[in-house]
Amino acid sequence: MSDSISLLRKQMKAKQISKIMAMKPGRELDAIVAEYIFGLQVQRLDSGLEDQKDQDYWFTLRSNGRVGEKNEMERVPNYSTVVYSAMQILAKFKHWSMQSSPDGQGFEAYFYSGERVDLSNSQVNRMKYPSLAEAICKEGLLAVVESNKLIDKLMND
Length: 157
Known about the structure:
Blueprint (H helix, E strand, L loop, with lengths): L1 H21 L4 H10 L5 E5 L8 E7 L10 E4 L7 H8 L4 E6 L6 E6 L19 H15 L11
Antiparallel strand pairs: 1-2, 2-3, 4-5
């Protein structure tokens, strides 16, 4: 029985990882980062403009700066497209490494628990990302998945 549970967990983890890697930088990725890395209660709201089809993501702040009580809404930051916003993610992880890719055409990042990881080690699974903000967001979400947390928004369909 435990083998089948272990297999199911591996399959769920693999599905989440593939969905994270397939996501493009943008508001949906930002919302998932806000919810699963920062623990915010994110809502998708209609912009209210007739000619604008896009909806945006918001979270609620209390008057004292805590999440959840009053109706003061804050827009989810552009974590996946703005480096300044993405850098806030780093504070949520104890250990991480980042470097430009060897070909100079992107970035590699790795978030981990435990001992420092040398990214030059061929044993480390390195992904190349076109932007630093995307690298930080996706590696942060991958670290969440690796810690056996379920990102249920990625499990639909």
